[in-house]
Amino acid sequence: MTDYSLDDDLQLAQTLADEADAISAARFRATDLIVTTKPDMTPVSDADKAVERAIREGLAASRPEDSVLGEEYGVHGQSRRQWIIDPIDGTANFVRGVPVWASLISLVVDGIPVLGVVSAPALGKRWWAAAGGGAWVRDADSERRMRVSGVAALADASLSYNSIQQWDIHGQLDALVALSRQVWRTRAYGDMWSYMMLAEGLIDIAGEYDLQPYDMAALVPIIEEAGGTFTSTRGETGPWHGSALATNGLLHQAVLDVIDPSRLLP
C-alpha cells in the first residue's frame, strides 16, 4: 500500500467534491430528474447515482488500494483505509427543490474518521477538516476557520433535533421533550446542515436517529476539529451506532444525562 499524506488525501477529497458539485448542481431542479424509491422506501435520484459513480471512479484512479463504502453502491474492497460517501445527503430536499443538501466525502483509517468534506453547492458553502488541521468553511464571502460556541448551560443552548418522527419511532420522544424544556431554543434544521451550523458556532446541540455511517463519517472530523464532540445518543464514539449527538463539548454530558438517564443508574 502506498503511504499518502493527509494533505494529499484532503486535496483529493476537495477535487472529488468539485466534481460532485458540478454533477449535482446541474441536476438540481431539473425538469427531467429521475427519482425512484429504494427498498427502504427512501428516494434516490439519477443525480445521487451519478455523483457516487464519479467519486468512485476518481478514487479508483487515485487510491486503488483503498476500499469504498457508498450509500448507493455499497462496499468495494477491504482496506484499513476506507472512503465513505454519501453522494447527496438530503435527497428528499434535493428532489423537492429545497437547497439544503450536500455531498459527503470522508476517509476513515482503522475505523477512525480522519477527514471530512461536506459540499453544499445550492447553499454556496463547503465545510472540511482533516485531523490536526482545524475545521474550515468557504462561502462566497470568505474562507475561514470554524470554532464551536462557548455556551456552557443548557438554558442558553440552541438545539436542532432534525425530526420529531425519528425520536418518536425510536422511543425517545419523551427524552426530546425533556431536553427541549431545558434548552433556550429548538429547531429542526435537518440533515448535514445542523452539524455544520454547530461547527460554525451557530447552534450548540444537534442529534438524530436512524443514521448510517455514510450519513455521519464526514461530519465527525469537522465537528471535532472545530472543538466539538460527536457520539451516538448513548455516548458511543464514531459513526457506527445508528444515531448522532453532536455538541460544543461543554454541553455533551448534560445532554446525555437528559436523553439517556439509564446511564446514571448504578
Report what the structure shows:
- The chain is α+β, with helices and mostly antiparallel strands.
- It has two domains: 6-145, 2-Layer Sandwich (Fructose-1,6-Bisphosphatase, Chain A, domain 1), CATH 3.30.540.10; 154-261, D-Maltodextrin-Binding Protein, domain 2.
- The chain has nine helices and 15 strands.
- It has helices spanning 6-27, 46-62, 91-96, 164-169, 173-180, 191-199, 213-216, 219-225, 252-259, and strands at 35-37, 43-45, 67-70, 74-76, 81-89, 102-109, 112-120, 125-130, 135-138, 143-145, 158-160, 185-187, 205-209, 229-231, 243-247.
- It has an eight-stranded mixed beta sheet with strand order 4-3-5-6-7-8-9-10, sandwiched between helices. A five-stranded mixed beta sheet has the order 12-11-13-15-14, with helices on one face. The chain has a two-stranded antiparallel ribbon with strand order 1-2.
- Strand 6 and strand 7 (112-120) form a beta hairpin.
- Helix 1 (6-27) runs antiparallel to helix 2 and helix 6 (191-199) runs parallel beside helix 8.
- The mean pLDDT is 95.
